Amino acid sequence: MNFRSNFIVALVLLLSGCAASMDLKSPSRDITVSFSVNECGVPQYQVMAYGQEVIGLSSMGLEAVETQLASGFMVKDVRRSKVNQEWVQPWGENKQMLDRHEEMAVVLENAEGVALTLKFRAFDDGIGYRYEYDASDVVADSLTITGDNTRFNFAQDGVSWSIASYFSGYELPYRELAVSAVENTNTPFTFRMGDVYGSIHEAALYDFPEMNLYRQDSLDFKSELAPRPDGTLARVGACFVTPWRTIQLAQSAVGLINSSLILNLNDPCAIEDVSWIRPQKYVGVWWGMHLGTQVWTMGPRHGATTENALRHIDFAAANNIGGVLFEGWNKGWENWGGSQHFNYCEAYEDFDLEKIASYAAEKGVSLWMHNETGGSIFEYERDMEKAFELYESLGIHYLKTGYAGGMPDGIRHHSQRGVQHYQKVVEKAAEHKIAIDAHEPIKETGIRRTWPNMMTREGARGMEWNAWSEGNSSEHLCVLPYTRLLSGPMDYTPGVFDIYYKTACATPGREEWNGDNSRTYIKTTLARQIANWVLLYSPLQMACDLIENYEGHPAFQFFRDFDPDCDWSEALAGEIGDYIVIARRAGDKFFLGAGTDSKARTLEISLDFLKPEVVYLATVYADDPDAPVVTQPDGTEAPDKTFYRIEKIKVTSSDTLTIEMAADGGQAVSFIPVE
């Protein structure tokens, strides 16, 4: 046998050895991710959970112009480690966090000496993996990524909940489809397969395009990344890491909600002093603009006026509400639809910024600024330093941003350049002690652990769709906690009490900007609107309705009592699209929210989450079973959704609460210790 034959035999033996599976198990041993390299040197993995195969053998790898990152690899080294540590976040669904996982880093190398590390982490609530690359001494100083060959080959068919792939927005209706019927999807992509619930997403997205999934064949999905204008996907250094690709796994639907996987795959806090980053309730003029009772530009119906601002500040101060937001305060809205040219420092003549800021501070209320960019990211990056300096000088620490429009030069919102922009805003805001509420955002991927001033985002069909479209159904609200909210907080802007827009309908000409919306209305009961403050988590939680609809309303007491600064949260019961029950604790108070779909539902919920040996006064805000049937604005007949009842009872942790919900209904409960 000659030298060439010996070499070929040795190479075949080495590749065969690499094909042997390397397993990584979660601490509980319920979840296993297995890694191998096939005969062509393509890395691959599969996932087992709770005795069931979830992801069958699936290939991995990246494609780049300058080097081979997809095949020809052999295993050079395998490094293993374990982590079991607690950490604390300044705010969140739960402040006390546990990071308990096992890690496997597989170092691959090809014949050209190019090394690629695949790092896997297995938690008791799922797995994560990412690509880590350092070839700065082998190839060029930077790489052009042209493909992501990561696959998710489902082991069997199941049912899924998702929105379609779209690289410039997330405000699409959720679909309940068989996994095999999904052509493409954004993430989180939530599914049920047999007795296992799962959700595919990503964590720590900073300098890379977002991931979508496109079905290739049967149950095999491939990662597709938001492209750059030239068709490539990303420009990265010769040393880089990708976001984590994540698969949350649970034996119940609410187990997905109670997962901390996404946060645990992000780095610790990068901000030394976080004392200024505080959860808060707020009100503003936003809803009136979508209804058409107010507008963003100067004129008779201008919402952001000095008089209106002072009125909202007084209302907030009188109702235990921490902040007020004013959209349309700054010049530039008259340019909407053309070249934006927003002025982020100069107010309209009827909005005295300095006077309003001073009055808010005197009343102990936070003034929020709003920066709509219309997608003009270059303009905003040029001006935001000056704007943030102004806001900081006025004692303003909260900012809502918006990107309602196409970005320039063919840049997609969710491409690498878009992701870089959103992160640039977060980091620059942190320098000026400003917290961000981003609308038309890049998806949440847990970066709030590292940058806790990134407090909340929109990123789905929120409340505004109820003002000028068919609206959001009660099923939509029962899907959000298991999909969009798995990624992190959402600024849904809940809390409309004027269900049928009677106040708005009395405003002449309100339909001028968005057409005739006289047949639109809120598709849930008022009790469900209250419950949404608990169910749709956001550390910055809005009571969005016109404040005159809250004045003197007995049910508004729940929001006065409510505290979005959670210490602990747990989803107690639910099924995706059907119903949801969540409890949260803030200090010594507890709050519970429950919501159902279009079916009336009665649930028995144990109160064992309450502190033992403490008596609580439970104030129950519930649907009224005796609500009369009325004709809705769209011509259908249904029980009047504005009817509700309030009941006060004393309870302890040994009691059980009966939750009765009407169709499209809900229930909210505050638990306050009895002195």
Share of residues in helices: 10-25%
Task: Give start-end ranges of low-pLDDT stretches.
Answer: 1-18
Q: Using DSSP, what is the number of strands?
A: 38
Instruction: Work out the radius of gyration.
Output: 26 Å
How would you sum up the major sheet?
A: 10 strands, antiparallel
Mean pLDDT: 94
CATH architecture of the domain at 21-264: Distorted Sandwich
| Spatial separation of the terminal alpha carbons | 91 Å
Helix tally? 13
Please give the CATH class of the domain at 21-264. Answer: Mainly Beta
Category by helix and strand content: alpha+beta
Shape assignment: globular
Strand content: 25-35%
If you consult CATH, what is the topology of the domain at 21-264?
Answer: Beta-galactosidase, Chain A, domain 5
Secondary structure layout plus pairing:
Elements (H helix, E strand, L loop, with lengths): L2 H16 L3 E4 L5 E7 L5 E7 L2 E8 L2 E3 L9 E15 L7 E14 L5 E9 L2 E9 L7 E7 L2 E3 L5 E4 L12 E4 L5 E2 L3 E5 L2 E8 L7 E7 L2 E6 L8 E4 L1 E3 L2 E7 L2 H5 L3 H4 L15 E5 L1 H6 L14 H13 L4 E3 L27 H11 L2 E7 L4 H17 L4 E5 L13 H16 L3 E4 L15 E4 L7 H4 L5 H6 L22 H4 L20 H10 L4 E3 L14 H5 L6 E8 L3 E8 L2 E8 L4 E6 L9 E8 L5 E3 L5 E3 L4 E8 L4 E6 L4 E8 L2
Parallel strand pairs: 22-23, 22-28, 23-24, 24-25, 25-26, 26-27
Antiparallel strand pairs: 1-2, 2-3, 3-4, 5-10, 6-7, 7-8, 8-9, 9-20, 9-21, 10-19, 11-18, 12-13, 12-15, 14-17, 15-16, 16-21, 17-18, 29-30, 30-31, 31-38, 32-37, 33-36, 33-38, 34-35
